[in-house]
Specification:
Layout (H helix, E strand, L loop, with lengths): L2 E3 L1 H8 L6 H10 L4 E4 L2 H13 L1 H10 L5 E4 L3 H13 L7 H13 L3 E3 L3 H6 L9 E3 L1
Parallel strand pairs: 1-2, 1-4, 2-3, 4-5
Amino acid sequence: MNQIIDTSFLFALTNRNDKNHLPCLAVAQRVKGRLIIPVTVLPEIAYLLDVRLGHQVMRQFVAQITQPTWTLESVQSRDLSRAAALLEQYADARLDFVDATLVAIAERLNVNRLLSLDQRHYRIIRPIHCSAFEILP
C-alpha cells in the first residue's frame, strides 16, 4: 500500500530526539509500497530542519530524499483547484496549504494512508475517494 508523508512525520523521523522518532521509524521500516512526499512538503520540512536542527541536518535530509526509497510527487493544476476547495471548505479549522495539497494528491493517487502526526486536521477531512484516511503512527 502506498502512503503519503506529511511534514510532521518527516521531522520526527529525522530528529532522533523527538518523542515520536521511534514510532515514526518503526512505521517507516515496516510499511510496504511507495513513500510519497508531495513537493509542497519540501520547503516546509527543509525550513523546520534548518531552523530547529541546523543547516547540516537539512542538507543531509535533502541528499537523502533522492534515494529510491522516496517518491516525490508534483502538484498538478487539478490538485491546486481541489486544495483551494478544501481550504474554503475547512476554513474554520484553519487547514493550511501544504495539508490541503497533501489531501488533493492523496485523492488523485487514490492513497488512503497518511504518515503524519497531525491528527487534528486529517481526522476532520472527508476525502472524496475513501470514507476517512488511515493515519499512522
